[in-house]
Amino acid sequence: MSDPRFLVVRLGSLGDIVHTFPAVSALRHSFPHAQITWLTHPRWESLVASANLATEIWATETRSITSIREIVSRIRTQNFTGAIDYQGLWKSAALPLFGGVPKRIGFSSHSIREWGVPILYTARVRCKTTHIAEQNGELSQCAGAGCMVAPFALQIAESADAVVRQRLRDGGIERYILLSPGGGWRSKCWPPERFGQLAEQIRNHSGLRCVVNYGPGEDDLVRAIKSASGNAEPMAFSGTLERLMPLARNACCMVGGDTGPLHLAVALGTPSVSIYGPTDPQRNGPYPNAGAVPERHLVGARHAALQLGEAYPLNRGSNIILRGAGAVRDHRRSDETDPAILKISPDQVLAAVLQLIGSA
């Protein structure tokens, strides 16, 4: 019997692709000689390539009719055994259908947010697990994988690592805490003023400076953080994904919300403190990667319970999740900070950071 030929579809975004890696790794471990072609957005080609799981990576821009036509024609030439749509949207499910892939695997209507999408699949999986990484793994198992998830290793370019290290040295920074205040929608983001207060407390308690990672359109967050940070001197850092990877990997700890940079850091083995509100950490929380080899030694009791008053912690190895009591799952994209997130104070986040890195 010839090796299978899989088309896997996960177009974006950063955190979602990271949460797809364990499932595709399970596919690769189960079928080491299979053709795995990963279909993604051009923005994420380098990220997908860094996992070294796909035989080929095809990029398509779904907002371009020309790009869609080209990729559908290309799919038709490959005689794929089956397609796995880890995204669950009309645009992702339609590509294998129009490309003529005979077996198309996706989520059932119990897991998909866009109504009607499962009609495009020939196999619909009703998930029994809760976390999205494992739900993705259930799709891989439907395709024949012998396990739900498997470890993976992200490759970082030495040139990018060298550039980032030099930039930090130029700023007088060696060991640091990485802060990621932004997010796709502001309602799930902790206020920047609190990140600034946290940076000041971290400097006072541990002597470490903070590095603030920010993206396009988030300059206001950096200004607010610096304004509230006293004499902590946090360093602002904005760069490509290739440079974000070494920045995240080499941090002592990362603090952020339910965002792509935090999930990337966790996949690289970096300890994290994540702040949750309207998104459910049981489904979308940090998912530790057994294949990551962190270049650090943690100090202190990583598994001890924290006493956080109105916020409660969830501990997953070296990842601590804080979520305000009474938080309700809500994916509406609002510009107003979710009330549950406001229940989490800088003191509580500092306690979690010090638990991971030690107070010295």
Structure explained in plain terms:
The protein has 360 residues and is an alpha/beta fold. It folds into two domains: 5-142, Glycogen Phosphorylase B (Rossmann fold, 3-Layer(aba) Sandwich), CATH 3.40.50.2000; 158-357, Rossmann fold (3-Layer(aba) Sandwich). It has 14 helices and 13 strands. The protein has helices at 14-18, 21-30, 45-51, 65-76, 90-98, 132-142, 158-170, 192-206, 219-227, 241-249, 260-267, 281-284, 339-342, 346-357, and strands spanning 5-9, 35-40, 56-59, 82-85, 104-107, 123-125, 176-180, 209-213, 235-237, 253-256, 272-276, 311-316, 319-324. A seven-stranded mixed sheet has the order 9-8-7-10-11-13-12, sandwiched between helices. The protein has a six-stranded parallel sheet with strand order 3-2-1-4-5-6, with helices on both faces. Helix 8 crosses helix 9 (219-227) and helix 10 crosses helix 11. The termini are far apart.
Class per helix and strand makeup: alpha/beta
Order of adjacent strands in the largest pleated sheet: 9-8-7-10-11-13-12
List how many beta strands DSSP finds. Answer: 13
Number of domains: 2
The CA-CA distance between the termini, in Å, is 59 Å
Globally, the shape reads globular
> Uncertain segments of ≥5 residues (pLDDT<50)?
294-310
Tally the helices: what do you get?
14
Q: At CATH's second level, what is the architecture of the largest domain?
A: 3-Layer(aba) Sandwich
Give the overall pLDDT as a whole number: 90
